[in-house]
What does this fold into?
Amino acid sequence: MPKSRKRKLNRDSTDVTELLDAAPVDRRAAVRLGTFNLNGDFFTPEGVLLRRAKAEVTPSKATSLVLLGARVAFEGCGCGGGGGCTPSWPDRSDAAKAAAAGKPQFTGKYGSPTWIDVWNGGDQTVVFLHGDVRWGTLTG
It folds into this structure.
């Protein structure tokens, strides 16, 4: 009768039951750079978590915030950014030039829901333009 070949488990290796008992990874909460994850959390392109600070602001207020250093993000379909489109993040210098040249305009060009909201996270403020907004060369 052949000898039984039992493998010895290396004491340094991880036991399979430990792996099975580990908490499952919540893929809905994963950081998605520059957009929303499946839980609806919004992140900068660098991965900073943002929270909505104000649901609707005027074009004048948006301009003031950008002139004070806020970043700009925009999405042109009016979905709010969480509906599958990826927000665009223009350079801060381009946003500052647009703000210095005037206020964003609600065009009604495509009939999309249109608004501006403000998000904060870390030490950043983000002015988020949605829908039919034109602001110099930043948006359509």
The chain is about 20% helix and 20% strand. The beta strands are 42-43, 49-54, 71-75, 105-106, 115-121, 124-130, 133-134.
